[in-house]
Write a structure and sequence with these properties.
- By secondary structure, this protein is mainly alpha-helical.
- The chain is built from six helices and two strands; from the N terminus they run αββααααα.
- It has one domain.
- The chain has helices at residues 4-7, 24-46, 51-76, 78-83, 98-115, 120-144, and strands spanning 13-17, 20-23.
- A two-stranded antiparallel ribbon has the order 1-2.
- The longest helix is centred in the middle third of the chain and has 26 residues, at 51-76.
- 21% of the residues are buried.
Length: 145
């Protein structure tokens, strides 16, 4: 019996626009982030959290989460990057680790929650479902990758 998944090898590139490639992985990561933010905003209504503060926190968590994902990946393969330091910046060639995104994104959220005088655990309760959903969506990007 032929297993369909073994006969189908997906192309990691969704679309090519000259020298620019749009990858399935990136599409799923961005989609996961947007779905997580939308779900978090919807849940924040039930917990009386200001949407503007959620958007501000979300913006910085996304930025620092991506940076953390890259830093974690670089640390995992440090000898290579010490020999090729310019490749640290080549994020488009791959190399993100969810652990780093969670660590630096979480620290960023913790800092901003204190800055805005919010309840960390209330925010965590609002963010957790979206974070889990974003992880599930992002895993589909790994399949195409």
């Amino acid at each position: 019996m032929i297993n369909f998944l073994h006969t189908f090898t997906p192309n990691p590139i969704l679309i090519s626009l000259g020298p620019i490639n749009i990858y399935w992985y990136g599409l799923f990561i961005v989609f996961g982030i947007l779905v997580a933010l939308a779900l978090t905003l919807k849940l924040s209504e039930y917990y009386d959290l200001e949407k503007n503060k959620i958007i501000d926190i979300g913006f910085w968590v996304i930025i620092f989460g991506i940076a953390g994902a890259r830093i974690y990946h670089v640390l995992l393969d440090l000898p290579y990057y010490l020999e090729n330091p310019v490749n640290i910046l080549k994020i488009w060639e791959g190399g993100l680790a969810i652990h780093g995104a969670l660590i630096l994104g979480g620290l960023t959220a913790w800092y901003l929650v204190r800055k805005y005088s919010l309840n960390f655990w209330k925010l965590a309760a609002v963010v957790a479902p979206g974070l889990a959903l974003a992880q599930a969506i992002g895993r589909w990007g790994n399949y195409f990758n």
